[in-house]
Design a protein that fits this description.
This protein is mainly alpha-helical and about 250 residues long. The protein has one domain: Four Helix Bundle (Hemerythrin (Met), subunit A). It has helices spanning about 1-35, 45-65, 70-75, 85-100, 115-140, 175-185, 190-220, 220-230; strands spanning about 110, 165, 190, 245-249. A two-stranded antiparallel sheet has the order 1-3. It is globular, with a radius of gyration of 20 Å.
Length: about 250
């Protein structure tokens, strides 16, 4: 039993890192350069955009649906304890790989000319990537692929976690969402499918931020309500940097 559990943990960790991490790398390429145009189904513009919209919606359903409490409780009856976060990373990786590989390219609407403007778009993307690294290092319990419990790390009880405010979280409540929006709009070549993608994903991120606020209030209570009063959701407030305490208990 112990050997079987070790093998299962190893396979789950490998799958989470390979599919979760690999999908993020290929998705970053998609955001930076635009559609990979790997598969062309020969659809007309209208059908191609509908197909792309469907791919986005499927990812939204997977990514947002799996974190709902009812689904987590249901899935807990089928997977071992401590595996949910890694399984979630695997499912997200499969959904994201599918979106990037099957995405249908549309007509070119605008392209930034070579020079300062085009470099500006690329600089925004690189700045967002650096911001992601900064945000991750500012979190006390950052486990993007959910493999911590499977590697023997001590399980953290959510009720014992205090609201800790560090780094970019002292400027904006959801820096990762803000940085994602920056990356989404940083491609210098705007096609019809990319415009659809930008609008869909920006809207989904904003809606997701409001959904997450409810969960954070449930977890941290009055501490998060006070944080919400003093720090904006997505637009940074630089003048708040020195006035915000680092932690609430």
């Amino acid at each position: 039993m112990k050997l079987g559990r070790m093998v299962l943990n190893s396979l789950t960790v490998g799958g989470a890192c390979l599919l979760g991490g690999g999908s993020l790398i290929i998705f970053a390429h998609f955001l930076y350069f635009g559609s990979l145009n790997l598969v062309n189904f020969g659809l007309g513009q209208g059908l191609a955009l509908l197909f792309d919209a469907g791919l986005s919606l499927l990812f939204f359903l997977q990514h947002s649906g799996m974190v709902r409490k009812k689904f987590r409780h249901w899935l807990a009856g089928f997977i071992p304890e401590g595996h949910f976060a890694a399984v979630y990373a695997i499912a997200s990786g499969v959904a994201l790989f599918s979106l990037v590989f099957l995405w249908q390219e549309g007509e070119l609407l605008f392209t930034a000319p070579p020079g300062i403007l085009r470099w500006f778009f690329h600089a925004v993307f690189c700045l967002a990537v650096a911001g992601f690294l900064w945000s991750g290092m500012s979190l006390r319990y950052f486990d993007p692929f959910g493999i911590g419990p499977l590697l023997g790390r001590k399980k953290v009880n959510p009720e014992q976690i205090s609201l800790t405010i560090m780094g970019p979280y002292r400027l904006v409540r959801h820096p990762l969402y803000l940085l994602s929006i920056m990356m989404i709009w940083s491609c210098p070549d705007l096609t019809s499918d990319r415009l659809l993608f930008n609008l869909f994903w920006t809207g989904w991120i904003i809606v997701g931020a409001f959904w997450e606020e409810r969960d954070l209030i449930d977890q941290f209570g009055d501490a998060y309500r006070e944080y919400r009063k003093r720090v904006p959701m997505l637009i940074p407030g630089i003048n708040r940097w020195k006035r915000w305490p680092q932690a609430f208990h």
